[in-house]
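TEACHING EXERCISE
Course module: macromolecular assemblies
Task: Read the component lines below, then compare them to the predicted structure of the full complex.
Student: A.B.
Group: 4
Components provided:
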Amino acid sequence: MAGDLLKDLKRRVEAIIPQEVNVSFVEFEGPELVIYTEDPKKFADNGDIIRSLAKDLRKRIVVRPDPKVLIDPEKALEAINEIVPEEGGINDAYFDPDTGEVLIEADKPGLVIGKYGETLREISRNIGWTPKVVRAPPLHSATIKNIRDYLRSEKDSRKEFLRRIGQKIHREPSAKDNWIRITALGGCREVGRSSFLLSTAETKILIDCGVNIGSDNNISPYLYIPEVSPIDSIDAVVLTHAHLDHAGLVPLLFKYGYDGPIYTTAPTRDLMVLLQLDYIDIASKEGSKIPYSSAIIREALKHTIILNYGEVTDIAPDVKLTLHNAGHILGSAVAHFHIGQGMYNVAFTGDIKYERTLLFDPTVNNFPRIETLVMEATYGGRHDFQPSRNEAESKLQSTIKRTIERGGKVIIPAFAVGRSQEVMIVLEDTVRKGMLEKIPVYLDGMILEATAIHTAYPEYLNQSLRNLIFHKGMNPFLSDIFVQVDSSSKRQEIIESDESCVILATSGMLNGGPVMEYLKNLADDPRNTLIFVGYQAEGTLGRRIQKGWKEIPFSSGGRTATIKINLEVITIDGFSGHSDRNQLLNYVRRMRPQPSKVILNHGEERKCLELANALRKKLKLEAIAPQNLETVRLV
Amino acid sequence: MAGDLLKDLKRRVEAIIPQEVNVSFVEFEGPELVIYTEDPKKFADNGDIIRSLAKDLRKRIVVRPDPKVLIDPEKALEAINEIVPEEGGINDAYFDPDTGEVLIEADKPGLVIGKYGETLREISRNIGWTPKVVRAPPLHSATIKNIRDYLRSEKDSRKEFLRRIGQKIHREPSAKDNWIRITALGGCREVGRSSFLLSTAETKILIDCGVNIGSDNNISPYLYIPEVSPIDSIDAVVLTHAHLDHAGLVPLLFKYGYDGPIYTTAPTRDLMVLLQLDYIDIASKEGSKIPYSSAIIREALKHTIILNYGEVTDIAPDVKLTLHNAGHILGSAVAHFHIGQGMYNVAFTGDIKYERTLLFDPTVNNFPRIETLVMEATYGGRHDFQPSRNEAESKLQSTIKRTIERGGKVIIPAFAVGRSQEVMIVLEDTVRKGMLEKIPVYLDGMILEATAIHTAYPEYLNQSLRNLIFHKGMNPFLSDIFVQVDSSSKRQEIIESDESCVILATSGMLNGGPVMEYLKNLADDPRNTLIFVGYQAEGTLGRRIQKGWKEIPFSSGGRTATIKINLEVITIDGFSGHSDRNQLLNYVRRMRPQPSKVILNHGEERKCLELANALRKKLKLEAIAPQNLETVRLV
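Instructor-supplied answer key:
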């Protein structure tokens, strides 16, 4: 069947391209149709061929050289170095004879690519190999290096996997019914363990698979109900972003027998691995149940297919997926699905920020079509209005100033990913502009590593940061005010020193991580300050301290001690990566086209219901807040 | 496991009963715990033992003699005939050595049972065998005879089946989650193919499995979705009543691999078999697709466990079922479920009549507890008020009179089950009281057979009919105005005769059946009258004629002809077996206790939505009208 389909596609390719161009064979690899040719130069010479093939065949097309025409790697590397200007900074090049690709790691990928891809095409013409360029990160990221090494070592089984998935995606659909449904598996009327099943009679897609960190029970989405059984009946997993409440239990799927693809952005893939490894590391240190091994994290990684924002991609015979910027954290995406014969469109926001932040552009709310929107409601409550970004910045500034004046230290618990970098950019900017004296900003936990991943994907940052980095050569993440804490002796030194400083440490909700060490030792000194810059979920220590608890029981070396909370506690809301109520309402109000139905999740029950009410009354939309385990039919 | 449980139960039985009473062994048979004993007389002497065992063990208890103590069947029969008064009219007795039961078929079962079961106990004391009494129907029903013969022939495999189901019902529950959900598989926002899945983490129960007769597509409930896959993951099927839109596709479940029990009343079981056989017979005559064979209907029959109204029965470790009178047709039931640890209660009305009719008492609306009510909405629309029963009767009377006066014939298309008997009772009553001249009432299709089944279960009729039959010895169904049509020559004779008459014939919505033959031949004569007494679903010929179509294309002997509708067309609403809007609202308003949530089904979309609206506004209840394929969570 797949063989016949490929034969037919080869014939259609040959009918479209100029007669003198040879096609050796065609092959599905994941969502892409790969054309192998002895004449890669001729394809490379004519950028239009691929575009017109993609348009005619309605598939994503990749052209690769037939292995026969590849020149010797050593000679090829010489040629590459001749073609690319020295400022491109080529660090490394890896040749993969199976795909005919050479992966070039460069300081400035733009110079390897050239205007409209001209340099890349020249390389291709000269060496036969298809060049792919990745950025050499300015901060070294062990995560990224490990991921790249691992994927290289697994290239054979990955190729086999991509071929299998490709054939599955491009099969003839067999279902007769046309319904489309959404089942809430987790994260509805609650924050945590986000997971939806989007299903048609043909296809099952899991959107996110998060963990409920703050909860003792109800940790996992409902993965054992008939709708998702057996687990390998799922066709694809799509991840909106890397935070654990959205991607923390993805490896569990593989542990239970899932063997299909995960679609997400490259930064999400890398951040996800970082956060998952940290999650099981913390669990093991705390002696709590470890849900999966690092081997399973690698298994999930091997099954990840990365997509760029805006790429329309077949992920099933009846479903096309497009990811769009969500403005929440690096690589975060709104997942837009265009579904089958019924021509129905539904988008899942994941977590969204509908406001320009220091890091990201505001989330996208224009789609070719959209009938149903599934939207987060974290701050959807009647009174959930956040201060402006300016107010938040000046409150942070004045709080730090006040703390310095009384000789205290500032602890900022933060998610390693997102809030930390946002706060780093504010601090760097404030210090650089002389509005705050230059004090050290200690980064503890995985914050530096997460920052390194940010520097590897500057194209995911907002326009002004990209300008600063690409055109002014100024990368604020590289400022010398940031000091990595890499040992417990260093931590002790910071705690004991008299010097004022800012400590940015994980976890963000005070449920574990190095921030606990600082809190234990600095909480009883009223000169110090604890600043919350992110959402504190119900059930976490962060939420308790926010509520005004003054004594916190603590187990330490087997004994239970009590920490007195004497330090100043401040919440600064404006740094949230979430939209506030106004932003959520405006996001929907200004959405083009208008959806007819909005399904709310990712918010406490009251907030979901209040936002649904507002959407019905103010925008005259059908708005519902399903419970977990409920199924809503769209068509 | 089951063995241990039974050992333990035997010990508990022995601890409760008097020491001198022997217990040979105990066994699960379906939902019942059967105690085999060498001393059945001692149990029989003391009616309280069984009641107190049932109370203490919280199980339905049946006592049977140990096979060792059974006396010779011939001698036993002599003894029975001596004990029972001759007026009891014992026709037949069948001894089953496996169960130690003797099935006694009598004209007057009451005389075999005796006051408070005294006669039955005396029989038991004398012969060892456990007597069970069934009524010898006053009209011979081939259906009932075939069913009884078949079940006797299958007693071994049925015993094995009951043992297996018994052990499954009484297993230790293993699920940890406590949720309860309802999934709409069919019959929501439509009339036809009624089917719900009621599920907990432990148990799946299918309520009804109907067919959409009026539809070309969407004939079947959604039985292929993950929630009910594989089909043998269903633990039990519960049927509210026998109509095809509720029970027509039950055999399909067995065709696809279901092997579990069907719970329903005895009349529903018999009527269901009658209607299913007729359904496949019509399909075969029309050359349309036959969904299942008669062998599969028998398979379903073998799996049916009958329950009386009001019997609380374990059907799963976490679910108890009680059936209550629904007032709709013979044996129709509201299915009340009492669920597990959460102590949650939900009732499914099936189709209900909340008004005393000529045949039945009004449906029950008092339950020990109820949180959610799933209710039909056939006549739930804003303007769906029906005339009173009296108005309907006098309209029927005057219409027939008018037709007789002009020398015409009256055609009444009717469901064989329900409306036919209702109309028969009105006609018999009107003629007997001299308010209508004595004209023949022809019964065509399965109406006489369905009526025979009604005469076999007079205890399911209303109080005044029971009085008439039991105490006055007057059974209106036996009146000589009713004439069975049993051949096409008889049919032709009726059509060609000049004599006025009433023709009561199936099907009720003019989509097939013998009524078509009458319509074809009598429709163009304006002296004749067509009277609709039941609901005409969208898409049926009945609905089209109601809407005023004057020409009906018809295929006859390969050619397409046109029938002119010149006869008088009258709709008389008051005979409906469904509650009208007022009755539906009153049914909920007067329900004790009040449910907190009402889920509506079995009505066109607009009617479901309008009734939901009324329930919210007038009764301040949460009311929803889910779509097929949606899942609602109760807990």
